[in-house]
Amino acid sequence: MARITAGVATSHVPAIGAALDNGKAEDPYWQPLFAGYEASKAWIAAEQPDVIILVYNDHASAFSLELIPTFAIGCADQFAPADEGWGPRPVPVVKGHPTLAWHLAETLILDEFDMTIVNAMDVDHGLTVPLSLMFGQPDAWPCPVIPLAVNVVQYPPPTGHRCYKLGKAIRRAVESFPEDLKVVIFGTGGMSHQLQGPRAGLINTAFDTAFLDRLIDDPVGQAMVPHIDYVREAGSEAIELVMWLIMRGALNETVRVAHRFYHVPASNTAVGHLILENA
Length: 279
Hints:
By secondary structure, this protein is an alpha/beta fold. It has helices spanning 14-21, 31-35, 38-47, 98-110, 125-135, 160-175, 205-217, 219-223, 227-234, 242-249; strands at residues 3-10, 51-56, 71-74, 78-79, 94-95, 116-118, 145-150, 182-188, 255-263, 271-278. It contains ten helices and ten strands. It has an eight-stranded mixed β-sheet, sandwiched between helices. Strands 4-5 form a two-stranded antiparallel sheet. The chain is globular.
């Protein structure tokens, strides 16, 4: 059967992609951040996943305020990098895994999760930046990717508890797939940051650190934290962190921390990163 072996959590700051694409990774500002992902590149090269399920949020590229799915799963053969206003990122087209994606869609819907099935969409920095951080800048991404977009842009987003339960349902769905596949699931977005208003540039390292600790050791407790706590303590865009709970729900209750990294700042954002292996 297919199996989820590990989870990756990472921020998906668009300026990280711009730094890579414009040859600035070794600049003094950016070098400490990218150094934190060198161990991650070695880890995923050794792990060699057959498929990645990548949980992210769209930033008005594939969806707009005219259509806002709470959970959307990409079932296409491929997904092109989106033009977010300054041209598509110069990264490879993302190859999908339609067979597993359709199995996930069917299984999750019959498990009473209302997934929106998407057969054509472009993917923005929310998906491509995590791939760049983990794989560098290859000519082709080394494995297929199933995009799973979550609405954390327009209120109301799903609760942390709902996201955690979705992660558990994803694990059940993967394990019911008959092909022998090694799957790694990504949860992306965050950490503390706010992009507008009088609190623009907010960083709350204490909140971020506590979130990382609880995600590892007390995910059930973290799943019960309400939206307002994320927004009040860590800024309006910190609500993206509920997507990490989808990744965490797909893993064992007890996990091994293969890598942990935290860095401030990256374009007025706190960057967090975890690699968790099933214990």
